[in-house]
Design a protein that fits this description.
- This protein has 290 residues and is of the alpha+beta class.
- The protein folds into 2 domains: 111 residues, Probable inorganic polyphosphate/atp-NAD kinase, domain 1 (Rossmann fold, 3-Layer(aba) Sandwich), CATH 3.40.50.10330; 154 residues, Tumour Suppressor Smad4.
- Helix content is 31%, strand content 32%.
- The chain has 9 helices and 18 strands.
- The chain binds adenosine-5'-triphosphate.
- Adenosine-5'-triphosphate binds next to helix 2 and helix 3.
Length: 290
């Protein structure tokens, strides 16, 4: 079953149709469902059972994939997740090393290995890639979605610059529940994978197959540091900055900045205070061939 979000990436129907033609050539029988509103992909994925389909394939971005993992976890949990990356950032595609080219995507879906991965959870809502609080969630909450459909990632950069001036930067208190260690930070992002914001790798190991989260703590506030951190992300040096710390663990609590937003896979999924942890449920994902 292919679930298509026509709004992801500003509508990439042509790329979807090409991929479906390649899937047909591989002998895959496809039932296509299109979302009409947020939440539909979650319901479609929840209703999918192994007797109807082998794989729920999300043709969309990381937000639609987030809906699907929540749907699969609430449903029978039997079907695997596949992706046709049509979103803006496509972080999961970067994480699993999947190209966005239709022929490669179809080959992966038809022949790729299925691997079991761990999920994260914030206040009962699952996330695949990351959950964040502080500056990062503030940007997600206020980004102009209409502009995002037109200029893509640029909308995040504009909102980042706007929030760097407007945001109050409350101090977050983060506790690693495995060890009891506590830290203060301006932004706290729990990575389930290794990437953030697109092709940018933050941590070298761990990743989706590990039953742990990497809590990335950005300690400083203000415009100058926002730009410095963004540059560190883009150049792959962020985790080596002296005011950035990464704690690996299975459960973290975050408070301070009460009622501030918490983002998961690029959508707001909770408010502070929150607890981010490795979810009990795992999920099967179709990877590209090695
Ligand atoms: N038919 C629809 N109309 C409007 N919104 C939808 C529809 N279907 C899904 N959505 C919502 O669209 C949002 C954005 O989708 P998604 O994240 O998949 O794409 P994207 O933002 O372009 O990509 P990425 O997250 O990879 O940057 C999701 O939060 C999802 O709930």
């Amino acid at each position: 079953m292919v679930v298509f979000n026509p709004t992801a990436g500003g509508n990439r129907r042509r790329r979807l149709m090409k991929t479906l033609r390649h899937l047909d050539a591989h002998g895959c029988a496809v039932a296509l469902r299109e979302t009409a509103k947020p939440g539909d992909a979650e319901v479609f994925a929840m209703e999918a059972s192994a007797k109807d389909c082998d794989v729920v394939v999300i043709a969309g971005g990381d937000g639609t994939i987030n809906e699907a993992i929540n749907g699969i976890s609430r449903g029978t949990g039997e079907v695997a997740l596949g992706i046709i990356p049509l979103g803006t950032a496509n972080v999961l595609a970067h994480e699993i090393g999947l190209s966005i080219r239709p022929a490669k995507v179809a080959a992966a879906l038809a022949q790729g290995p299925i691997r079991r991965i761990h999920l994260g959870e914030a206040d009962g809502r699952k996330f695949m890639l990351m959950a964040g609080a502080g500056f990062d969630a503030e940007v997600v909450e206020h980004v102009n979605l209409k502009l995002k459909r037109v200029i893509g990632k640029g909308a995040y950069i504009l909102e980042m610059l706007r929030q760097a001036r407007a945001y109050g930067f409350p101090t977050l208190h983060v506790t690693a529940e495995d060890t009891g260690e506590t830290r203060q930070a301006a932004t706290a992002v729990a990575l389930n994978g290794r990437h953030y914001g697109g092709p940018y790798k933050v941590v070298g190991d761990g990743g989706l197959s590990a039953a742990s989260l990497d809590m990335v703590l950005l300690k400083r506030k203000g415009m100058f540091n926002v730009i410095r951190y963004a540059t560190g992300l883009a150049t792959g040096r962020l985790a080596r900055f002296s005011d950035v710390e990464v704690l690996r663990g299975s459960s973290f609590s975050i408070d301070g900045g009460n009622d501030e937003p918490v983002q998961g896979d690029g959508d707001i999924i909770a408010r502070l205070p929150t607890r981010m942890r490795v979810a009990e449920e795992t999920i099967e994902v179709v990877f590209p061939q090695a």
